[in-house]
């Protein structure tokens, strides 16, 4: 019923405007500002601390949707980015996470790993070929016979490549070893202007001389009164330990580098200078550095948003001066759901505990060994999913339904496990909202056998996927803001879904939607001429 209602809304909006909009012109340039882990609530909380030309301008003069959701479980930066690009969910586009366990290679692989293409200014070998459906960029390039110019810039390969899609002119990111801007040979020739940036920029020396510290006087950081930092913070990247460049790419200071390169692309590629629409995606971050495990670091959180505010003001000012606000559509959207750092809930006398994936998988394997023989029946843990060894089960002639049922029953007995969700049965489960979210996040050849739903307030410790984190079941909601071109200021409280971005952009570009898109064209754009 919900899908039918959403479809009717979209059809109504399209039919109302069909005759009037036929002769409408698309904007010369669309700039997407994707911000990983953007918290919609913080934009309201910190509003009085922002400048007049950044977040505040978008929120006052833009078309603001307060409640955009991702209709699948655990959206991270990669799966959310792929969903925005394709208008579909992981079950369709195939990107279930930034990395997942690969049964063939017996290891975790990146969502963009591809040994068939070399790196340009990097050792990484990547391509967008794990995307199983087309993107809005692909459809724009196809519609204009590759005359549109389309680029994506990010701090990581996964985010840059997935937002660019398969037909983009370029996807650029910062190499974690050298700090150089790089790309893949999957894309066309490395731009001359990007070579010039690399040749004239010593990022390693810059990082050695840089630290992340408060941007403003300390009395400006007053918008989280119940989470106070007693002291001024300062993080020197070369003192953090490990890879200083990687630490820099995970800090809010990397956003200034991305915006600067975006301005270089706008200038040197002459984006928005003719009637053929161009598309630039800037992938920024609202996360703190991975080395900061203090969940009450309120001054750092506010500083992240104050710095983002300045970068948004910088890109808006450039676009207005060089392209013209009337010719450019800017949109801002959040991608990915932040993990809360692990913390000792018991010290505050709260319910909770620690869940150890390695212990869970080891005990499960011992249990299955007692039932089926001395073998390795459990392959891996990844993204709260457990992978059984299908090949070994088949070779031993074991009934898969039997081992599957017994494994699920054993896992359900673990402390901290709220529910065991077998992906084998989720595809045929009743279509309630909860099962639909898990179904949308599943991909046959990439997901595990079981998803373990952990109790809220529990910590996942010694996590093979990376840093420890605390489980919270709070729904992830992002703002979606359109600004410029023919947009009138309005605030919409009606919930929308991630697929609606590509549905709306395809209408604005006057092109067909991506081939897997399940989003609608937002009806607020139906009267634009």
Task: Describe the overall structure.
The protein is of the alpha/beta class. It is 34% helix and 19% strand. It has 18 helices and 23 strands. Strands 1, 2, 5, 6, 7, 8, 11, 12, 21, 22 and 23 form an 11-stranded mixed sheet that branches. α4 packs parallel to α18 (499-509). It is globular, with a radius of gyration of 23 Å.
Give the helix proportion (percent range): 25-40%
- Unreliable parts: 1-23
Number of beta strands: 23
SS summary, helix count: 18
Report the average pLDDT across residues: 89
The first-to-last residue Cα distance is: 32 Å
Which strand-content bin applies to the residues?
15-25%
Q: Can you summarize the main beta sheet?
A: 11 strands, mixed
Radius of gyration, taken over Cα atoms and rounded to an integer in Å? 23 Å
Kindly name the structural category.
alpha/beta
Specify the overall morphology. Answer: globular
List the SSEs and their pairings:
Blueprint: H1 2-21, E1 29-36, H2 40-45, H3 55-61, E2 63-69, H4 77-86, H5 90-93, E3 99-102, E4 107-110, E5 119-120, H6 136-143, E6 150-153, H7 157-164, E7 170-174, E8 181-184, H8 192-199, H9 203-208, E9 211-212, E10 235-236, H10 244-249, H11 254-268, E11 278-285, H12 298-322, E12 328-335, E13 340-341, E14 354-355, H13 357-372, E15 378-382, E16 385-388, H14 390-395, H15 400-411, E17 417-422, H16 423-426, H17 433-440, E18 450-454, E19 459-460, E20 469-470, E21 477-484, E22 490-492, E23 496-497, H18 499-509
Parallel strand pairs: 1-11, 1-12, 2-22, 2-23, 6-7, 6-11, 14-19
Antiparallel strand pairs: 2-21, 3-4, 5-8, 7-8, 9-10, 12-21, 13-20, 15-16, 16-18, 17-18, 19-20
Helix pairs in contact: 4-7, 4-18, 11-12, 13-15
């Amino acid at each position: 019923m919900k899908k039918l209602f959403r479809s009717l809304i979209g059809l109504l909006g399209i039919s109302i405007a069909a005759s009037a909009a036929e002769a409408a012109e698309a904007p010369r340039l669309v700039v997407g500002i994707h911000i990983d882990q953007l918290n919609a609530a913080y934009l309201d909380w910190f509003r009085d601390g922002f400048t007049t030309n950044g977040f505040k301008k978008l929120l006052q003069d833009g078309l603001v949707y307060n409640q955009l959701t991702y209709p699948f479980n655990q959206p991270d930066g990669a799966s959310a980015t792929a969903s925005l690009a394709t208008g579909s969910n992981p079950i369709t586009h195939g990107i279930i996470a930034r990395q997942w366990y690969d049964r063939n290679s017996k290891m975790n692989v990146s969502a963009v790993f591809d040994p068939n293409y070399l790196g340009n200014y990097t050792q990484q070998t990547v391509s967008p070929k794990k995307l199983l459906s087309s993107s809005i960029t692909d459809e724009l390039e196809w519609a204009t016979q590759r005359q549109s110019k389309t680029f994506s810039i990010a701090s990581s390969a996964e985010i840059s490549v997935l937002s660019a899609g398969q037909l983009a002119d370029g996807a650029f990111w910062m190499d974690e070893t050298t700090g150089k801007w790089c790309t893949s040979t999957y894309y066309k020739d490395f731009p001359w202007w990007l070579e010039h940036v690399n040749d004239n920029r010593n990022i390693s020396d810059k990082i050695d001389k840089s630290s992340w510290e408060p941007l403003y006087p300390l009395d400006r950081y007053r918008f989280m009164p119940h989470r106070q930092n007693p002291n001024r913070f300062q993080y020197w990247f070369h003192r953090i330990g490990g890879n200083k460049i990687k630490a820099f790419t995970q800090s809010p200071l990397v956003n200034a580098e991305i915006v600067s390169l975006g301005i270089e692309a706008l200038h040197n590629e002459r984006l928005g200078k003719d009637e053929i629409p161009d598309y630039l995606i800037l992938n920024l971050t609202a996360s703190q550095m991975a080395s900061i495990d203090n969940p009450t670091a309120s001054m750092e959180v506010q500083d992240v948003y104050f710095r983002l505010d300045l970068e948004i003001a910088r890109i808006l000012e450039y676009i207005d001066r060089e392209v013209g606000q009337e010719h450019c559509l800017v949109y801002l959207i959040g991608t990915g759901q932040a993990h809360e750092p692990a913390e000792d809930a018991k010290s505050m006398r709260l319910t909770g505990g620690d869940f150890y994936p390695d212990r869970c998988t080891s005990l499960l394997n011992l249990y299955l060994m007692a039932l089926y023989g001395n073998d390795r029946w459990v392959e891996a843990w990844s993204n709260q999913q457990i992978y059984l060894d299908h090949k070994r089960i088949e070779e031993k002639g074991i009934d898969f339904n039997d081992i599957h049922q017994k494994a699920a029953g054993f896992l359900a007995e673990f402390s901290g496990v709220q529910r065991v969700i077998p992906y084998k049965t989720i595809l045929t489960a009743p279509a309630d909202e909860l099962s639909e979210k898990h179904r949308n996040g599943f991909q046959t050849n990439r997901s595990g056998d079981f998803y373990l739903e952990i109790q809220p307030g529990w910590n996942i410790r010694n996590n093979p996927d990376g840093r420890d984190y605390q489980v919270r079941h709070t729904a992830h909601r992002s703002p979606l803001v359109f600004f410029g071109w023919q947009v009138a200021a309005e605030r919409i409280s009606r919930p929308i879904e991630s697929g609606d971005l590509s549905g709306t952009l395809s209408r604005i570009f006057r092109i067909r939607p991506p081939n897997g898109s399940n989003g609608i064209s937002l009806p607020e754009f139906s009267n634009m001429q």
